[in-house]
């Protein structure tokens, strides 16, 4: 697939790059998928195309993307009700806090003090762009629809 970047993080420096790409992404709780038996967390999002903005585009576009963490031992949330699927969140960034090597915790930080903490065996994260948000679902709020990634 040309034109659709895929970024992979295997250490804290790589994750910092992914964090910069997902800054200010819109997420609905319905698109946060924790598959405990697979040790995987997938987050569907609507992210700003920062590359286009840096290239001088006057009006930034949004992209539908998926953020995936593998080898996740546990997933804990703070100030996020994952049972309310219509809740809109804004992702501020992601940090990695090393633990016993090669493991640690990846923390996804959201506006209003929300957070997801993923305890991982080792850091394995991927950000994949799925395409432009041609439907204009980037402005999440009352009555917004899920991206449909919660399959």
Give the count of helical stretches.
Answer: 2
Strand content: over 45%
Provide the gyration radius in Å.
Answer: 15 Å
Rounded mean pLDDT score = 86
* Cα separation of the termini: 22 Å
Largest sheet: 8 strands, antiparallel
Uncertain ranges = 140-151
SSE class = mainly beta
General form: globular
Order of H and E elements? EHEEEHEEEE
Total beta strands: 8
Q: Into which percent range does the helicity of residues fall?
A: 10-25%
3D structure, described in words:
- Mean pLDDT is 86; it is low at 140-151.
- The chain is mostly beta strands and 151 residues long.
- The chain is 11% helix and 49% strand.
- The protein is globular.
- The protein has two helices and eight strands, in the order βαβββαββββ.
Question: What's the SSE blueprint?
Answer:
Elements: E1 6-9, H1 12-22, E2 25-28, E3 32-35, E4 40-48, H2 50-54, E5 62-78, E6 88-98, E7 104-110, E8 115-132
Antiparallel strand pairs: 1-8, 2-6, 3-4, 4-5, 5-8, 6-7, 7-8
List keywords for this structure.
8-stranded antiparallel beta sheet; 2 helices; mainly beta; 151 residues
Concise account of the structure shown:
The chain has helices at residues 12-22, 50-54; strands at 6-9, 25-28, 32-35, 40-48, 62-78, 88-98, 104-110, 115-132. The chain is mainly β and 151 residues long.
């Amino acid at each position: 697939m040309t034109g659709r970047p895929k970024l992979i993080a295997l250490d804290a420096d790589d994750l910092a790059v992914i964090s910069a790409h997902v800054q200010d992404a819109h997420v609905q709780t319905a698109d946060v998928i924790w598959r405990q038996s697979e040790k995987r967390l997938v987050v569907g999002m609507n992210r700003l195309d920062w590359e286009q903005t840096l290239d001088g585009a006057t009006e930034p576009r949004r992209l539908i993307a998926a953020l995936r963490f593998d080898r996740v031992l546990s997933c804990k949330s703070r100030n996020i009700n994952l049972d309310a699927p219509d809740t809109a969140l804004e992702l501020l960034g992601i940090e990695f806090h090393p633990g016993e090597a090669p493991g640690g915790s990846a923390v996804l930080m959201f506006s209003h003090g929300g957070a997801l903490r993923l305890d991982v065996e080792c850091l394995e994260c991927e950000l994949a762009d799925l395409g432009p948000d041609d439907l204009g679902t980037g402005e999440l709020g009352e009555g917004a629809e899920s991206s449909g990634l919660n399959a």
